[in-house]
TrEMBL record:
Keywords: Methyltransferase, Transferase. GO terms for molecular function: methyltransferase activity. It comes from Nostoc paludosum FACHB-159. GO terms for biological process: methylation. Pfam families: Methyltransf_11. This is Class I SAM-dependent methyltransferase. Residues 116-214 form the Methyltransferase type domain. The keyword Methyltransferase applies. InterPro entries: Methyltransf_11, Multihaem_cyt_sf, SAM-dependent_MTases_sf.
């Protein structure tokens, strides 16, 4: 499995999990054993899962804006209720189909290895897999219940498990090898991350040179009570600080929706 060997990493030292010997002691057999389960089942490559394996209990919880997506009720409704509401214009002035068109246009004819980071129920991963142009789709999310919805929907859509590698992972400890991914989609996600700066730094790390990031999020004046909303200038600042060159960063406001296109 070329893709797994090349792209999936220990979230702590970023070395490919399929490579031996491992470079860090903390990689532990746990992550390598998880790797064996893919693609037939989802794998958990969060540092929390390793901690639970060793200590028998989970470590600290994330902020509410991340944790609420782990609720089975939210995951169930996310898939079934939100898409028609978005289509009325609330998301990207036209819904997920508009976003899919923008994203695939930006990624081009041969997107290569595409990672959907914070994939949720895989609304975009499934479209990308069905499009059939990607070398591999890797779907990563922190919420095990969102990922379980993704698995159920894949069965309903007739998508074989080999088409989407599903990983429970944290954008702030991304279990992907540096400079390995051709394109990343992070839809409606940054406002849910505990630390958007750290998330984008990780995304920059794993993109190969020339790799593309298409990301969307909501903008101010939405108030940052639970979620963290951004101004266009803040988004640009986060992207430039992560390492993207200013000539290769575009941030567009469509109503209160921010669309990011970057090339590393
Ligand atoms: C609003 S949903 C977006 C889902 C999907 N990308 C879409 O376009 O509809 C935000 C997602 O971010 C995920 N998320 C939040 N914090 C995360 C983190 N630290 N690492 C990875 N995913 C995270 C949540 O679990 C949730 O599925």
């Amino acid at each position: 499995m070329f893709i797994l060997k090349e792209a999936i990493a220990c979230p702590l030292c970023h070395q490919p999990l399929a490579k031996t010997p491992q470079q860090c002691d903390t990689c532990h057999n746990y992550f390598r054993n998880e790797l064996q389960k893919t693609p037939s089942s989802l794998i958990d490559l969060t540092p929390e899962a390793l901690h639970k394996q060793i200590q028998g209990n989970a470590i600290q919880t994330k902020p509410l804006r991340t944790e609420l997506f782990r609720s089975p009720i939210i995951s169930f409704f996310y898939e079934r209720v939100l898409p028609p509401i978005w289509a009325t214009g609330l998301r990207n002035l036209g819904g997920i189909d508009v976003e899919f068109a923008q994203c695939t246009e930006f990624f081009g004819e041969n997107p290569g290895i595409v990672a959907d980071i914070s994939c949720g129920t895989g609304i975009m991963s499934r479209r990308l897999a069905l499009l059939g142009k990607c070398k591999q789709v890797i779907a990563v999310d922190y919420s095990e219940t969102m990922l379980s919805q993704l698995q159920q929907q894949m069965k309903l859509d007739g998508i074989s498990p080999s088409k989407i590698v599903i990983i429970r992972g944290d954008v702030e400890a991304l279990p992907l090898v540096s400079d390995s991914i051709d394109a990343i989609y992070a839809g409606a996600a940054m406002h849910c991350w505990p630390n958007a700066e750290e998330g984008i730094r990780n995304i920059y790390r794993v993109l190969r040179s020339g790799g593309k990031l298409f990301a969307t999020t909501f903008l101010k004046p939405f108030p940052s009570i639970v979620f963290r909303f951004f101004s266009v200038d803040e988004l640009r600042h986060i992207l430039l600080t992560a390492g993207f060159n200013s000539d290769c960063v575009q941030v567009e406001a469509r109503g209160l929706y921010g669309i990011i296109r970057c090339i590393k």
